[in-house]
Amino acid sequence: MSTAFDKFPPIEGIRWFNVAVLVLTPLIATYGLVFVPLDWKTVIFACAYYWFSMIGITAGFHRLWSHRSYNACFPLQIFLMLGGISAVQGSCYFWGRGHRSHHRWTDTEKDPYDSSRGLLWTHIGWILFKSKLRSGPVDSSDLGKDPLVQWTHRYYFPLAAFFGYALPTLIPALWNDPWGGFCFSAAARLTVAHHCTFAINSIAHYLGSTPYDDRLSPRDHFLSAILTMGEGYHNFHHQFPMDYRNAYLWYQYDPTKWFIAVCKFLGLASNLRVFPSNEIEKGSLTMQLKHLKQVQDSIVWPKAVDELPIVTWENFQKESKSRPLILVSGFIHDVSEFIDQHPGGETCLTRNSGKDMTASFFGGVYRHSNAAHNLMSMMRVGALAGGVCPPDQTIPPAQVLFVATRHQDSEILLK
């Protein structure tokens, strides 16, 4: 029987420090939930500090340093850097290089959290276990030259210990709740922050839709956005990674986008990068057409005009004696299976077999709907020799717009 571990690469060892952080931290949080009374001031502080940690990751480590999607003044950089460090997910230098590799080598063995390895591997396996897999090379020279990034990388462990555990414990001590601080604003906050961030690598590659491109695994989903402070519109993000927004549409949930926009309004951020909307619409249209092509291919269409046999007037008259054949717009239609369903009654069709009913069909008796035109086209059995079909009546209304696959030697995509 297959298990979640079957897709794991060969394991060479365990990252014990990561195991300690990701096992002991939730155990401390669980202990607190069972044995430590909740103080509402600590709960409020824990929520605020959680926001601080997550915005440090999403607006800082991710959109500012990994993707350079906007510029931040130095005080904002310090705020975001400390927030990201408080999430205890590695230094900004480590985080940014790994994430750039993920974008450069998505869904391959050089992707540090390769989605083809399964949900468990992408969520936490790659963090806990050592393997022969190595992240693909990327250009991180700008991170190597950034003094703030390099200083915090050099002193990451004492900084993470202080901002990740000590500070969120000490502040609740001011209102005599150090244990609550340690269990809730430190351990519980970190546990939730860890797994919500990891969800960007895991469920954001499994759950949702692909409205901009479906060649790779990233997907858009509202639930992922809720868990990750807006990072869940991952299909958009992988197509347009330099855009400071993950949620392109105004109504989509992306508090990180709103935070960056507010920072710009306050003069703390600048040069907010956005991908041209025209190019975004191209991606969206491509996927819509692909979906429509699949729907179109599942529908039964009438025979192509050049596949219909040419029938003389004499043969048309002869055949119409044995079965109801109606001539409309130069095409001969066998209405045998429709006689009992015709709204005008059976007689209307049988008494006009062998006749040209074009004028009647187009308003002489009744001006038929597009649906009637589409249905009638399915009954075509031949084209009258020497018959004339108006150019706008050769193609049924349902086929006026028709999605076709374009190849290098083709001239049209939509005809």
Automatic annotation (TrEMBL):
<keyword id="KW-0275">Fatty acid biosynthesis</keyword>
<dbReference type="InterPro" id="IPR001522">
    <property type="entry name" value="FADS-1_CS"/>
</dbReference>
<keyword id="KW-0276">Fatty acid metabolism</keyword>
<keyword id="KW-0472">Membrane</keyword>
<keyword id="KW-0812">Transmembrane</keyword>
<keyword id="KW-0443">Lipid metabolism</keyword>
<dbReference type="Pfam" id="PF00487">
    <property type="entry name" value="FA_desaturase"/>
</dbReference>
<feature type="transmembrane region" description="Helical">
    <location>
        <begin position="43"/>
        <end position="62"/>
    </location>
</feature>
<feature type="transmembrane region" description="Helical">
    <location>
        <begin position="16"/>
        <end position="36"/>
    </location>
</feature>
<comment type="similarity">
    <text>Belongs to the fatty acid desaturase type 1 family.</text>
</comment>
<dbReference type="InterPro" id="IPR036400">
    <property type="entry name" value="Cyt_B5-like_heme/steroid_sf"/>
</dbReference>
<dbReference type="InterPro" id="IPR001199">
    <property type="entry name" value="Cyt_B5-like_heme/steroid-bd"/>
</dbReference>
<feature type="domain" description="Cytochrome b5 heme-binding">
    <location>
        <begin position="317"/>
        <end position="385"/>
    </location>
</feature>
<dbReference type="InterPro" id="IPR005804">
    <property type="entry name" value="FA_desaturase_dom"/>
</dbReference>
<keyword id="KW-0560">Oxidoreductase</keyword>
<keyword id="KW-1133">Transmembrane helix</keyword>
<feature type="transmembrane region" description="Helical">
    <location>
        <begin position="74"/>
        <end position="95"/>
    </location>
</feature>
<keyword id="KW-0813">Transport</keyword>
<dbReference type="Pfam" id="PF00173">
    <property type="entry name" value="Cyt-b5"/>
</dbReference>
<protein>
    <recommendedName>
        <fullName>Acyl-CoA desaturase</fullName>
        <ecNumber>1.14.19.1</ecNumber>
    </recommendedName>
</protein>
<keyword id="KW-0349">Heme</keyword>
<dbReference type="InterPro" id="IPR009160">
    <property type="entry name" value="Acyl-CoA_deSatase_haem/ster-bd"/>
</dbReference>
<keyword id="KW-0249">Electron transport</keyword>
<dbReference type="GO" id="GO:0005506">
    <property type="term" value="F:iron ion binding"/>
</dbReference>
<dbReference type="GO" id="GO:0006636">
    <property type="term" value="P:unsaturated fatty acid biosynthetic process"/>
</dbReference>
<dbReference type="GO" id="GO:0005789">
    <property type="term" value="C:endoplasmic reticulum membrane"/>
</dbReference>
<dbReference type="GO" id="GO:0004768">
    <property type="term" value="F:stearoyl-CoA 9-desaturase activity"/>
</dbReference>
<keyword id="KW-0444">Lipid biosynthesis</keyword>
<dbReference type="InterPro" id="IPR015876">
    <property type="entry name" value="Acyl-CoA_DS"/>
</dbReference>
<keyword id="KW-0479">Metal-binding</keyword>
<feature type="transmembrane region" description="Helical">
    <location>
        <begin position="155"/>
        <end position="175"/>
    </location>
</feature>
<comment type="function">
    <text>Stearoyl-CoA desaturase that utilizes O(2) and electrons from reduced cytochrome b5 to introduce the first double bond into saturated fatty acyl-CoA substrates.</text>
</comment>
<keyword id="KW-0408">Iron</keyword>
